[in-house]
Design goal:
The complex is a heterodimer of chains A (70) and B (211).
Chain A lengths: L5 E8 L2 E16 L2 E16 L4 H11 L6
Antiparallel strand pairs in A: 1-2, 2-3
Chain B lengths: L1 E6 L4 E6 L3 H13 L8 E5 L2 E3 L4 E8 L11 E9 L4 E9 L13 E10 L13 E8 L2 H8 L9 E9 L5 E9 L8 H11 L10
Antiparallel strand pairs in B: 1-2, 1-11, 2-3, 3-5, 4-5, 5-6, 6-7, 7-8, 8-9, 9-10, 10-11
The chains are: A alpha+beta (70), B alpha+beta (211).
Chain lengths: 70, 211
């Protein structure tokens, strides 16, 4: 199973887990006279409430924010 | 514009380039099931075609470029497979292959070009492991040799023909033969040129790999 993001670190916080993560998306820029590959990276932090699965929660957030597509 | 045509024992698959009416129609239908789908990075999308190994009707989307989470597999191409009834999604990774690195028997006069296999991506529906089904893509100087392996007549393209055999990765059993044909030169019609370029990127001498 390949994860489309990287969890950099986690730390226990009051009523949940703090997660530092990164996600990178590669897209093709294909415009008249210009063709290139663009990398977009987000390094960010997310708070995962107690009782939630970290991967599932993070994945849903990235899906809803458009960093991951179906 | 049709970018590729493929025939397998159970179906014929046609792929449409982004920007065409057909592409838009197929994507819009897919979005009814997958609202978070993003087709902006797709080069082409296929009509649904039945796949006897996946036991489902499948739409194939070929990506313009692959995402970094697949970099460690060193793909030369990536596609996404949408299994319409099971509602599973897999990514298919195509990696460079040469006659020297091909572990599977091919018809005489063939040149191995690529190996394709399905991978599970976290969060995508579908946890069945299909990675044991290996697709070997190749060219062959003698179309009739491939036909005799397929056990039937295969369509001949006016410009180029390429082939794929699906193997069981463990037993090496041959499961089915697929045929891709092109009637004229277009973006995807010259697999061997694409293969030579990918060999050179990896500092492999392509001439030393040919049969």
């Amino acid at each position: 199973m390949i994860k489309p993001y990287t969890i950099i670190s986690t730390r226990q916080e009051v009523s949940g887990t703090g997660v530092d993560f990164s996600v990178t998306v590669r897209t093709m820029v294909d415009e008249p006279g210009f063709k290139d590959v663009k990398l977009s990276t987000s390094k960010s932090f997310i708070f995962v409430p107690e009782g939630e699965d970290i991967d599932n929660y993070l994945h849903n957030c990235l899906l809803n924010s458009g960093w991951i597509a179906q | 514009m049709i970018v590729s045509k493929m025939e397998s024992p159970e179906a014929t698959r046609i792929d449409y380039q982004q920007g065409t009416k057909k592409f838009t129609e197929i994507v819009e239908k897919l979005k009814l099931t997958y609202s978070k789908l993003d087709a902006s990075n797709w080069y082409s999308v296929s009509e649904p075609a039945y796949n006897s190994i996946l036991e489902d009707s499948v739409i194939t989307a070929i990506a313009k470029t692959h995402n970094p989470y697949l970099d460690h597999l060193d793909p030369i191409l990536v596609s996404r497979k949408y299994l319409l009834n099971k509602q599973y999604i897999y990514e298919k990774v195509y990696v460079l292959l040469t006659n020297q690195t091909c572990e599977f028997e091919l018809p005489e006069g063939s040149n191995a070009l690529a190996k394709g296999y399905l991978v599970n991506i976290y969060g995508q529906p579908g946890d069945q492991d299909y990675s044991n089904y290996i697709d070997i893509y190749f060219s062959c100087k003698d179309h009739s040799k491939v036909e005799s392996w397929a056990g039937k007549t295969l369509t001949v393209g006016n410009y180029t023909n390429y082939y794929c055999i699906t193997f069981n990765g463990v037993t090496k059993e041959r499961l089915k033969v697929k045929n891709y044909w092109y009637d004229e030169q277009q973006d995807l019609s010259d697999w061997d040129e694409f293969w030579v370029a990918e060999c050179k990127k990896r500092k492999i001498d392509p001439l030393s790999q040919l049969s």
